[in-house]
Amino acid sequence: MSRRLARTLTPKVGLYFIALLLLVAVTFFWRWDVALVELILVAGLAIWTIFSVRRQRLDAGKYLEGLLGSVDKATRDGALNCPMPLVMFRPDTGEVVWSNERFLRIAGGADTVFDTDLAQLVPGFDSRWLLEGKNAYPGEIDLKGRRYQVFGAVTRAEGKGNDYPMATTYWLDVTDLADERDIYHATKPVAAVLLLDNYEEVIKNQAENVRSYMLSEISQRVTAWTDDVGGMLCQLDRDRYLFLFEEQYLAGYKAKKFSLLDSIREVENSSGIPATMSIGVGVDGESLGELYRFANLSVEMALSRGGDQAVIKTSADFEFYGGRGKETERRTKVKSRVMASAMAELMADASCVLVMGHKAPDMDAVGAAVGVCAIARLKGVPHYILQPDLPSPADELYRRIGEMEEYQHVLVDREEALALLGPQALLVVVDTNRPEQVMDEEVLHACYRVAVIDHHRRAATYIEGAALNFHEPYASSACELVSELIANLMEPSDLLPGEAEAMMAGLMLDTKNFTMRAGARTFEAAAMLRRAGGDTARVRRMFQTDLNAAVEKYSIIQTARMYRPGVAIAVSDRTVGRVTAAQAADELLNIAGVGCSFVLYPDGDRVVVSARSMDDNINVQVIVEALGGGGNAGAAGAQIAGRTLEEVRGELTAVLDSYFTKDDAGPDEG
């Protein structure tokens, strides 16, 4: 028995004997014979106490040893007879210390596993979860054709002169449950809406036999694509199909990047215009109705990104496949008239109109904002433009606007804007559709009614619940869209020359002086702005740069290297202006053999990417979206925080490799 336990079990009687001895001493001075008798009695009592305490110690020790022995025996018997496979091992080294018979059987029938590495018995088993204090393995273990959930805990054991961790794990066979779960997930329904998104374009002005042939060919290709999965296909309209199938086949469609898109594109009319299809897929819905709603949302997302692609909508996010080609203009003036009427009604009911662009607004954002203010001025509604706190690429345009008499009190800062917003205020967001990209998210959330005017392809995140959404990815610029609204709501003479020049600057910026993404509607907008008094010479002077910026631009171009045929990447190791970087990316496209360009440079704790493309087969928006950015097929950008310049360059090259690899099975994330 330990000394500590002995002291605990020994009665504290020492003080009593001291008191008795003092009494004997006092008696001795009175009568020595009586004191002698007392001394004999005290001695006898002391001897009896000593023997009694020893006997109690022995009895208590025997009792405790028997009790502890019973506990140890119960523990051993419980481990040996545990109904679950059990193994004890050192999680730091993987060395097996002991296991019961059931674990030996599931591990392959070995006689013993003592002193064996657990990773040899169970390939892929990782014990870090035990050292992290967790009680359950994160996932399932496949062992000899069975699947197990593993539970366990770590204690401290003593041995070899030091403490070491000891893990006890229990292995629960969940094969039957896991198989049923897999069957459940594999057979969950998936809804897909297939939309021939340029039906009118490929069918109009075609002979009847050509129409019949094309529609029959498209129907056959759709049927062939859906036949192998045992799903249900029905045609809802002349250009729309509904396809229901099981989720187990979705991975195959993903792996082939929805090959129906390429197959439909092979069907062309007599004018050489190929048919294109958009596919919207709904997954993980709580009901068939929700799956169908997800599928329709996916189709809308695909169309807003230019069509000719597949979009998968889950309960949490979107996935994008295809959409690499540039958009072709498919919109009509009917939609512009409808949107103009809706905008006029919104402004008529508004107490004031506040216009806001994206972060670091460019001339397209500011020009579009000026155009919206021109409409509000005509309607007699107070109007304001949110001005950024930091320098932006459109500072020169802001300066010119501020000098106009009609705009003396139009430019406001964030605090003034928040004070202006009331229940009837209308916020118009131009040149972006993503909430995280707006100039000020607090202003966005503070307004009850929001209108969006944008030409960029929609990403996975977008401003939801907008009262008006004039979103046309086929337009060259936001200024082009606003020009169409103006053409339906006011006369060109109602525009101020300064307003016309601001909008013309936005047109020229996004079209690179009408050389890229410029359609017939773009030139119509430019003509209307010219009639309104826009001076192209004054606009051209807005794009002039000083000598230092020009030198900086060409120093960036000097760092450019051809990464692969048609792709140039320039990396500047110092901070440059955003306009300078964009101009360098544009200038690289003037070099023979360059179809798309990327300029990277550091800006504080982030890396900025500016991308441009003039190759119809290279969509830089899809590439930059994988880095967390956005834009459109010909011009895109990203601001990546928390990574170095070399890390971003490595990520960009990896995305480019994936983009240009035909057998790549991953999604084009948006």
What does this structure look like?
This protein is of the alpha/beta class. It folds into five domains: 3-79; 86-180, Beta-Lactamase; 187-322, Alpha-Beta Plaits; 335-542, inorganic pyrophosphatase (n-terminal core), CATH 3.90.1640.10; 548-660, Diaminopimelate Epimerase, Chain A, domain 1 (Roll). Helix content is 45%, strand content 20%. The chain has 25 helices and 23 strands. It has a six-stranded mixed β-sheet. A six-stranded parallel β-sheet has the order 14-13-12-15-16-17. α17 links the parallel β15 and β16 (449-454). α14 packs parallel to α18 and α19 (497-511) crosses α21 (536-542). The radius of gyration is 40 Å and the shape is elongated. Residues 67-71 and 663-670 have low confidence and may be disordered.
Helix tally equals 25
At the fourth CATH level, what is the homologous superfamily of the largest domain?
inorganic pyrophosphatase (n-terminal core)
CATH class value of the largest domain = Alpha Beta
Output the CATH topology of the largest domain.
inorganic pyrophosphatase (n-terminal core)
| Annotation, overall tally of beta strands | 23
End-to-end Cα distance, whole Å, is 72 Å
Radius of gyration: 40 Å
Structural class: alpha/beta
Helix content estimate: 40-55%
Overall pLDDT: 84
The CATH architecture term of the largest domain is Alpha-Beta Complex
Low-confidence stretches: 67-71, 663-670
Strand order of the largest sheet: 7-8-6-9-10-11
Please tell me what the overall shape is: elongated
Strand percentage: 15-25%
What does the main sheet amount to? 6 strands, mixed
Question: How many distinct folded domains?
Answer: 5
